[in-house]
Amino acid sequence: MSDGLTLVTGGTGFVGAHVVRELLKRGSRVRVLIRKESPLKNLEGLEVDRCVGDLLDRESIRRAMKGCRFLYHVAADYRLWTPDPAVLYRVNVQGTRNVLQAALEAKIERMVYTSTVGALGIPHDGTPGREDSPVSLSDMVGHYKRSKFLAETEVTSASRAGLPVVIVNPSTPVGSMDVKPTPTGQMIVDFLNHRMPAYVETGLNLVDVEAVAQGHLLAMERGEAGRKYILGERNLTLKEILELLSKITRIPAPTVRLPQPVALGWAVLSTGMSALTKRPPRIPLEAVRICGKKMFFDSSRAVRELGFPQMPVEEALSKAVDWFRRNGYVRNGAAT
């Protein structure tokens, strides 16, 4: 689907920037919706049409969508702590509602919406979550997950109303260009800076961010409208992830496992201090609460129906480590 203009929201961010690059690689003409304050590092040197706007500005979305055939709505506010949680709902829910309405008005031919595995269910028997695992809003831990769950509900409703939209649920992407960085990227940065004296027992599904970008394009080309696809690769405990990072960097992995109640106590104190300072907590309470369940998922539907590639997570971690080192996220002498 390289013919016609494609709009990408969130194209300056981690996943979105890789989606933009993958589209350009395949010969697509790309327009990116950019907020005035967005850092543009991830778009440097790329031939894209930049359209200034905001998810909460409906008219700017309409302008950006004019003349477009295809749409990737990747933009989201991905934070596990914010002084004002209402911002997450405005951007992730109302912003998505605005994009969906504009897409219906513009008669967009195909759309891909970037959700998250955080909006999916996790079976109580310990098996990996799937696209159809039972889940409700009450299962969502924290404002970010709740906002994305509600946004996904909006997308499902728009699909029933006739919008040809496919939903992708990336697991935990890692790789280059994680500029903010994401919570997982921050964990890697902390590891490189020797700021992880201990760990909590949890699990994540890691995936190369470049594979996630390819998965978006495959969903556009082959996905069934209204259907969800998990874009993931390998289920690993946090201990296993840290051991992989240790092999890549030769930095010793932490050996002290912090009991969940102790971690929760520290997180309560850290997040409480942030309520006073308005600065992000060193240990976000929401992050520790999420660690209470292993975030393991099954991406076989995407592999089977989309041809979603499975790339080694070791390479993804290596690319992330190299990028953080080259871009000033690691203190001099720390990553040795």
Give a short synopsis of this structure.
With 336 residues, the chain is of the alpha/beta class. The chain has helices at 14-25, 58-65, 86-106, 142-160, 183-192, 209-222, 238-249, 260-277, 285-290, 300-306, 313-326, and strands spanning 5-9, 29-34, 49-52, 68-73, 110-114, 165-170, 172-174, 198-199, 203-208, 228-231, 234-237, 256-257.
Q: Could you walk me through the main structural features you see in this protein, from its secondary elements to its overall organization?
A:
This protein has 336 residues and is an alpha/beta fold. It has a domain at 5-180 and 206-233 and 296-312: Rossmann fold (3-Layer(aba) Sandwich), CATH 3.40.50.720. 42% of the residues lie in helices and 16% in strands. The protein contains eleven helices and twelve strands. The protein has helices spanning 14-25, 58-65, 86-106, 142-160, 183-192, 209-222, 238-249, 260-277, 285-290, 300-306, 313-326; strands at residues 5-9, 29-34, 49-52, 68-73, 110-114, 165-170, 172-174, 198-199, 203-208, 228-231, 234-237, 256-257. It has a seven-stranded parallel β-sheet with strand order 3-2-1-4-5-6-10, with helices on both faces. It has a three-stranded mixed β-sheet with strand order 7-9-11. Strand 1 (5-9), helix 1 (14-25) and strand 2 (29-34) form a beta-alpha-beta unit. Helix 1 (14-25) packs across helix 6 (209-222) and helix 5 crosses helix 11 (313-326). The relative contact order is 0.14.
